[in-house]
């Protein structure tokens, strides 16, 4: 019933939940913003459709050229840059390589491999033809889509869980998506909610995140000034926020 990748992700989640997230909590680096200034990419650097991984490369938590990234570099980059717990960093690192069917090292360009982690109905990227394995075009966020995402903010100051749910329902029910007859399977729908759950938790208070920050994050792939992770972002916290997004989506879809 499940693919091998789906089984791996489920097992990794169960292992992570069984692990005491708090006891593994890493310490946030104190002088991260000094050690990790923002350096925009050059045209020679590889970048991915993931604004978070691109931001890690732009701030030097990952190799700035976005190439030859080892398991260890990705794992430590997620912990140092975002304050992820060890179980969550393990899940994203090994789950990511597995879904991408990628033998290390990894280039950020590999991350755009269609239907690996990449999925349809993205909030920031247009869907692309399935016969392209590495759609370069897909790496740049689509400004029209982003403006629609920002317009989903109910107070024009923050993006809340409810706003994210509204944006996801909008994307998943958009006419071009339905007409193109492309699918968003359960695993990728979960990944799509998880991406925004991570953003809400790492850069907000898990309920809302600043719109000004989101603009800088999606458009410049830049972390906040004087950034250092404020709290540990663990699996349970992320799963809880993703569940709330899903619950709001379900209630929005009710006739
Ligand atoms: C804490 C770490 C991470 C955060 C906060 C994060 C956040 C995000 C966000 C907000 C998006 C845009 C979602 C959208 O447009 O709907 C995204 C996209 C993406 N992320 Fe990440 N991500 C993280 C880690 C990763 C990892 C480890 C991988 C893979 C190894 C990955 C792969 C991707 C891919 C492929 C996309 C593009 C999805 C698409 O548009 O089809 N991300 N991520």
TrEMBL record:
Cofactor(s) this protein requires: heme b
Spell out the Gene3D superfamilies in the cross-references. Answer: Chloroperoxidase-like
Q: Where is the signal peptide?
A: 1-23
Is Ligase there in the keyword field? Answer: no
Q: Which GO terms describe its molecular function?
A: metal ion binding; peroxidase activity
Question: Superkingdom of the source?
Answer: Eukaryota
The chain positions of domain Heme haloperoxidase family profile read 34-240
Q: Which family does it belong to?
A: Belongs to the chloroperoxidase family.
Q: What is this protein called?
A: Heme haloperoxidase family profile domain-containing protein
